[in-house]
Structures are given as structure tokens and as C-alpha cells.
Amino acid sequence: MDHVLPVFMAGTFGWLRLTIMFFAGTVGLALMVLWIWMLVEVLTRETDEANMRLIWALVIIFTHWLGGLLYLFIRRPERIRKLGK
After folding, report:
1. By C-alpha distance, which of 20, 21, 39 is closest to 31?
2. How many structural domains does the chain have?
3. Residue 31: CB partners within 8 Å, gap ≥ 6?
């Protein structure tokens, strides 16, 4: 019986391609979850003082996961320290 392998498994380094695809998918999913989490956080908990909610929402929307990381490490700790939420 002849076995047919999927295209990504063909060749010498098929296992390497599969591993890279798995990790890239996992990282991509994690970054998407971070992006959605930070966007929801901004829209529900950020104050509307000086349009901070709008500014951070636009930053996160247009820069995707990078904006989410910026918000997570720059603004969120400051907001928690000032407002306690």
C-alpha cells in the first residue's frame, strides 16, 4: 500500500515545517487574544479624560498586537495606580 503524505510533510524536513507551522499558529493566536483583551480593557476601563480612551483604542486598533503590548506595559499600570481599576 502506498502512503501519501501531505505537502507540508513531504521531503527531508517535513517535521521541521510542521513544528514551525504549529509554533507560528500558537504565537499568532496568543497575539490575537492579547489584542482583543487590551482593546476590551481600553473600551471598558479607561477614563474618558483628555480622550485617553479614544487615543488608546485607535493606537491598539491600528497597530494590532504591538499597540496592545504598549498599552499593557505603559498605560495600564499607570491607570491602575491612579484609578485603582
Report:
1. 39
2. 1
3. 64, 65, 68
pLDDT digits (tens, 9 = 90+) for 2-57: 566 666 555 667 778 888 999 999 999 999 999 999 999 999 998 888 899 999 99
Residue 2 lies in a domain: no
Kind and range of the H or E run holding 9: none
Write the pLDDT tens digit of every residue in 42-84: 999 988 888 999 999 999 999 999 999 999 999 998 988 888 8
C-alpha cell at 42: 481600553
Domain membership of residue 59 as a residue range: 7-83
Is residue 1 one of the residues assigned to a domain?
no
Assess if residue 43 is contained within a domain: yes
Let me know: does 68 contact 32? Beta carbons within 8 Å: no
